[in-house]
Amino acid sequence: MQTMWLSGAEWFAVLRIGLGLWWLESWRHKDKKTWFDGGGVEWAAGIADNHRWSFVRSGFAVVVKPRPRLMAYVVAYAELALGLGLIVGFLTPVALVCGLALSLIYLVLMIHDVSEQGQNLMMSLIALVALLGRGWQAWSLDDALGLFS
User: Fold this and answer.
1) pLDDT tens for residues 9-68?
2) Which among 20, 9, 12, 7 has a CA at the least distance from the CA of 88?
3) C-alpha count within 13 angstroms, C-beta hemisphere, residue 26
4) Measured between alpha carbons, how far is 94 from 77 in angstroms, rounded to an integer?
5) CA–CA gap between residue 134 and residue 12 (Å, rounded)
6) Collapsing DSSP states into helix, strand and coil, what is residue 147?
């Protein structure tokens, strides 16, 4: 693949690292006290309760609502783990698939909020491109350790 400045593998690494920084920022900007005290789940519950798709309302009521504190920790630390994993390129295919899933879950929950659609669509697209482009082939611990060759 002919590109300017970087190889194809390095460009996919740029996407991977940028996505990792985006996930890390999602974790960093949260008000942790409010988030872990249930504020994040309360906010999402308000959206889920009024969602026009019944599977979103019922899925949220069954999976998230009964465990607000646990789910707050799961979401926050999943974002942190995704960010760090993608930045250093460790278990990259796993992180990309999990990040894609989390972005799509957010997208479905926020499908009717125009301001959220762009972010989740872009994060999903970047994860998919980095996954299909094998974004762990350069500048990653996976490459250094010979994982996923």
Assistant:
1) 999 999 999 999 999 999 999 999 999 998 889 989 988 998 989 999 999 999 999 999
2) 20
3) 25
4) 15
5) 7
6) coil
pLDDT tens-digit map of 88-136 = 999 999 999 999 999 999 999 988 776 667 889 999 999 999 999 999 9
* Whole-number Cα distances in Å, 77 to 23, 74, 110: 10, 5, 20
Q: Rounded distance, CA 87 to CA 13, Å?
A: 9
Q: Which two tokens stand for residue 133?
A: 């482009």
Helix (H, G, I), strand (E, B) or coil at 109: helix
* Whole-angstrom distance, CA of residue 147 vs CA of residue 7: 20
| 120 closest CA partner among 52, 23, 36, 41 | 23
Map tokens 């190889």 to a residue. 7
Amino acid occupying residue 142: D
Whether the CB-CB separation of 135 and 16 falls below 8 Å is answered with: yes
Q: How far apart are CA 40 and CA 124, in angstroms?
A: 21
Instruction: Give CA angle at 149 (75, 137), nearest 5°.
Output: 65
Distance CA 37, CA 144 (A): 40
User: With contact defined as beta carbons under 8 Å apart, do 76 and 35 qualify?
Assistant: yes
